[in-house]
Amino acid sequence: MYEAGIREFGQQGYIRQAQDKHLCRSFGSEVSRLSVAVSPPYRPTHTGRSLQLFPFHKLIAKSATTVILGKMAVPPTYADLGKSAKDIFNKGYGFGLVKLDVKTKSTSGVEFKTSGSSNVDTSKVTGALETKYKWAEYGLTFTEKWTTENTLGTEICVEDQITKGLKLTFDTTFSPNTGKKSVAGYEGWLAGYQMTFDSAKSKMTQSNFSVGYKTGDFQLHTNVNDGSEFGGSIYQKVNDNLETAVNLAWTAGSNGTRFGIAAKYQLDSSSSISAKVNNASLVGIGYTQTLRPGMKLILSALVDGKSINAGGHKVGLGLELEA
Q1: What mean pLDDT comes out for the span 87-108?
Q2: More confident residue, 109 or 11
Q3: Percent of the chain whose pLDDT exceeds 90
Q4: Which of 95, 160, 162, 274 could form a disulfide with 286 if both were Cys (CB 3.0 to 4.6 A apart)?
């Protein structure tokens, strides 16, 4: 699925965003996606006019819709809506896993990122490899991705070459699913929509909508997935050392409401502790220690509060290396 998005910042601080759906090429299970983001000082004169995106692919994108909103910084991607609260619940934990992440950079400028994990219960080992090379002279960035699930991906990014402030990204992955995402914002308020289309079955498999509000130390986020799953989260940075988050979720037709509370406390410049608990009485604790610059050790444990003496608790160990 090829997507094009243009953001224009005028002298009045307005945002003009045009999101387009165009071509979908499938080669077996391969789906390509093209994303375009325009930031100042680039100002297209006509959003309804044809815009040639990638001459070497002979792709032409035409404006479909235009949304004009008030003052705000560049809206985040759909996946980043409510990200601060998600990070408090997810980062610093690895229950039942032994993980290793390594980041290195060669003298020629090629960046390598390798990650691997082993499930203690199933003994299943998974891994991923990512290489990134930046050709600064031409504003090009090439990224190759591979996982042990036999998923391959290639990303090519061109920035500030066709015109100042124009960024083009060509992303190809071996996956039968593709999606359209759009986010708009107004004075701290954010609204986003996401849809997923299964090219193998020729039908839409996902339709999600989100609304959020964001300030410097407080974030509120709500979402509706497929019209049946509802969720919300609240994030607050209490002070420089303490961050807290609360999330809620429920499904239409069900009386059960899922909720959780999480917090992260920075003990000092090199260590932090995280804790979370949900309505199922599952208590998670994580400890992150920076052993030295570029090396982090992560310890975590998950305890079932309903059956402390029965066992079934999980521990996790992670090591992050960066050079």
Answers
A1: 80
A2: 109
A3: 15
A4: 274
pLDDT of 66 reads 32
Question: How confident is residue 287, by pLDDT bands cut at 50, 70 and 90?
Answer: very high
Q: How far apart are CA 236 and CA 264, in angstroms?
A: 11
pTM: 0.52
User: Two tokens at 232?
Assistant: 């919300």
- The CATH number assigned to the domain with range 3-322 reads 2.40.160.10
Which residues face 7 on adjacent strands?
17
CA distance 53 to 89: 39
**What pLDDT score was predicted for residue 241?**
93
CB 234 within 8 A of CB 219: yes
Largest CA distance in the chain: 69
The SS3 call for residue 110 is coil
CA distance 11 to 229: 40
Core vs surface per residue 221-239: b (16+ CB within 10 A) or e? bbbbbeeeeebbbbbbbee
Q: Could you write out the DSSP letters of every residue in 229-288?
A: EEEEEEEEE-SSSEEEEEEEEEETT---EEEEEEEEEEEETTEEEEEEEETT-EEEEEEE
Measured between alpha carbons, how far is 267 from 264 in angstroms, rounded to an integer? 9
